[in-house]
Amino acid sequence: MIIGAGFGGLAAAKALSSLPVDVTVVDARNHHTFQPLLYQVATAGLDAEDVCYPTRGVFHRQRNARVRMGQVTAIDTADRRVTLSDGGELHFDLLVVAAGAVTADFGVPGVVEHAHGLKSASDALAVRSSVLAWFEAADSDPDLVDAGALTTVIVGGGPTGVELAGGMAELIDRVLCRDHPSLDVDRARIVLVEAADRVLGSFSPRSSARARRALEKRGVELCLGRSVQTITKQRVVLDDGTIIAAGTVVWAAGVKANPLGAAIGTALDRTGRVVVGRDLAIPGHPEIFVIGDLAASPTGDGRPLPQVAPVAIQGGRHVAAAIAAQLDGRPPEAFVYRDRGSMATIGRNAAVVELHNGRTLSGWAGWVAWLGLHLVMLIGFRNRANVLVNWAWNYWTYDRGSRLILNGPAPSDRA
Amino acid sequence: MIIGAGFGGLAAAKALSSLPVDVTVVDARNHHTFQPLLYQVATAGLDAEDVCYPTRGVFHRQRNARVRMGQVTAIDTADRRVTLSDGGELHFDLLVVAAGAVTADFGVPGVVEHAHGLKSASDALAVRSSVLAWFEAADSDPDLVDAGALTTVIVGGGPTGVELAGGMAELIDRVLCRDHPSLDVDRARIVLVEAADRVLGSFSPRSSARARRALEKRGVELCLGRSVQTITKQRVVLDDGTIIAAGTVVWAAGVKANPLGAAIGTALDRTGRVVVGRDLAIPGHPEIFVIGDLAASPTGDGRPLPQVAPVAIQGGRHVAAAIAAQLDGRPPEAFVYRDRGSMATIGRNAAVVELHNGRTLSGWAGWVAWLGLHLVMLIGFRNRANVLVNWAWNYWTYDRGSRLILNGPAPSDRA
């Protein structure tokens, strides 16, 4: 049984296709979400359907796999059973927990009530609707501009925050200014708040500086070394007392382990991630593995592995190999994460790429590398073709066709 | 001022581009909806973004047009002013009311509470989520099949009902049966209820018979000559006492005039449509026009014009010409609807087409004609390209990439 249809869970399930095991993938949603591109859904560059793929479709040709939609609420390691929120109970012989991470508010008041996360397609559509609806509202009542209608505050200067800020700047500068000729769109603000003294803290200082320049060139206001004290309705208060009036607030400040990790009942590290051995199994339970964002580093050097897709994918494949070894009676090998590099895009023609061999790419070359890699990684030919059409359209026309308010203020069609 | 960004409103606004007038398009949504393809969104063949287009984007290059998002609640013909639900008031010199039609429940109890309409992208997404979520639920608990989990009842055998039934049959037979190998998908039912004794009542009896055969070939159950007495939770009761247990009920039985028509304060016909003169202006108010689904037939022969896109589009263009005539001091010409024919598709390789010269197409030829016409009519190159990608994908793979449950039972990503 595999809990989670994210990058790790799907990689494990696919790698198990040739083994004499029955695979059940359990996920609360009916689709895999390609989270690295959610920021493009939030900025109307892609449709939600472009970055999500039906989980059942992944396994049409894999005979030993089946899918169960449901949210796991409890894991009984002694009885080898999981309980679902719909009351279902499922038995397992081997378990892979790949439940990922959830948005962490770090105890800041108001995050849950007044800020959007960016972990699911629904989150991304909510951000899109909020920004567009505020522009519409300000178009009707320009006084709302003073109340922050055109301001978006993004909390967190990691890749998600940086990419969202860059995409939002392009949405506003290229599209919304043409959509709203009577609105003073120059007064639109994008404020990126980051507690550290540079963005992209996991990258080299040189890449951080490049990203910072690219953001500033696009008009993004950077609040570095500042943290958010509280968020209220249409207001973000920083630790130095600054109050920013903002129609839309996106909380991209960080994630924490899925609370399901605690349900396993084994040791957690201080961030809530599950402590695993070098084979990614939990201590004393060689039949239970934890991978991806939910697993604490098995390296023992205390440095947590980054919570990115490649770690999850490699973990999933490793677990399949470990299960194959168990079936053969061989001892499991130790998991070694091969870091091939990291990348973040700031928008049109701009990205920073750091390869594992120390080489870096930036600007247009980095951007093309970013486009290609994400296109290849997207599941499904149809999604790739649609993404290509949308990207080509966005690039040549500076337009964003997906700027629909579907969840926003819409009237009933019925009288 | 133009109320409504449907086919009629947009056609009028575009045709006014060369006249010395300022055009304001008011619509409750921020996008035009290509309603004839909503059934494909409901059956996971297209994305909502493929069949909707941002209204502001339509007018980027039209200097004399602007857009106001808002729902009109009152029209003051004496003061020439409309009131919006957000409190805004707008003055007009010339008014085109193109507010269209809304779902009519004909007084049947339970329609509003327990059935889905199919007039907006949100409606279509709700139908898609309902069908998919019921299949997931039955996959977990097969007892739900007896309770109608896999049954879809479609009320109304006009083009919308017929096209939806055909699309739903293909979704189930080609895709959902592969998604749910452990489910007895053969027990899935699609029931089409129509009060008349044939489907597609506005077509010739020969086309109706063809459509009926095509539907029956796809396993759709036809209940002709029956009407719905009441709809309760997961239950449809027909006038002969038959009770159908159904997870999803779609009400495509008909539309009525938008109640905004009554707000004009002039004569209505018995279906609520606004009585207009031969120039499409209301009696005594040459500055107020009503077009499309909301306008009663101006022909005077008592036969209402069909509530289809071509009538609205031709009406919109006629009104622009009538306004040009007014500005020139010429008398308005009478509106003449040129019926070029009608078409409905039943699914893959099957459609019925009736041309104005009496010729008919059916089967594959009809289907190709249907595809081409709808592709040409879709606004925007991007939408056309995406639709083409999705249609090609669906056709060659028998897959439906958009089967995501986005509005359905999804948990919070936050702990």
Largest interface: A-B, 72 and 72 residues
The strand count of chain A comes to 23
The percent range for helix content of chain A is 25-40%
Rg of chain A is 22 Å
Domains counted in the coordinates of chain A: how many? 2
Enter the CATH topology name of the largest domain in chain A. FAD/NAD(P)-binding domain
Task: State the oligomer.
Answer: homodimer
Structural category of chain A is alpha/beta
The second-level CATH architecture of the largest domain in chain A is 3-Layer(bba) Sandwich
Structure description:
Two copies of one chain form a homodimer. With 415 residues, chain A is of the alpha/beta class. Chain A folds into two domains: 2-28 and 70-103 and 256-328, FAD/NAD(P)-binding domain (3-Layer(bba) Sandwich); 111-253 and 342-402, FAD/NAD(P)-binding domain (3-Layer(bba) Sandwich), CATH 3.50.50.100. Chain A is 32% helix and 23% strand. Chain A is built from eleven helices and 23 strands. Chain A has helices spanning 7-15, 38-42, 55-58, 111-114, 121-140, 159-179, 205-217, 260-263, 309-328, 363-377, 381-397; strands spanning 2-3, 23-27, 31-33, 52-54, 65-69, 72-76, 81-84, 89-91, 95-97, 101-103, 151-155, 189-194, 221-224, 228-232, 235-238, 243-245, 248-251, 255-257, 281-282, 285-290, 341-347, 350-355, 360-362. In chain A, the strands form seven sheets. In chain A, strands 5-2-1-9-20-19 form a six-stranded mixed sheet, with helices on one face. In chain A, a hairpin with a 4-residue loop joins strand 7 and strand 8. In chain A, helix 1 (7-15) packs parallel to helix 9. Chain A is globular and about 70 Å long. In chain A, 56% of the residues are buried. Chains A and B meet through strand 4, strand 5, helix 5 and helix 11 of A and strand 4, strand 5, helix 5 and helix 11 of B.
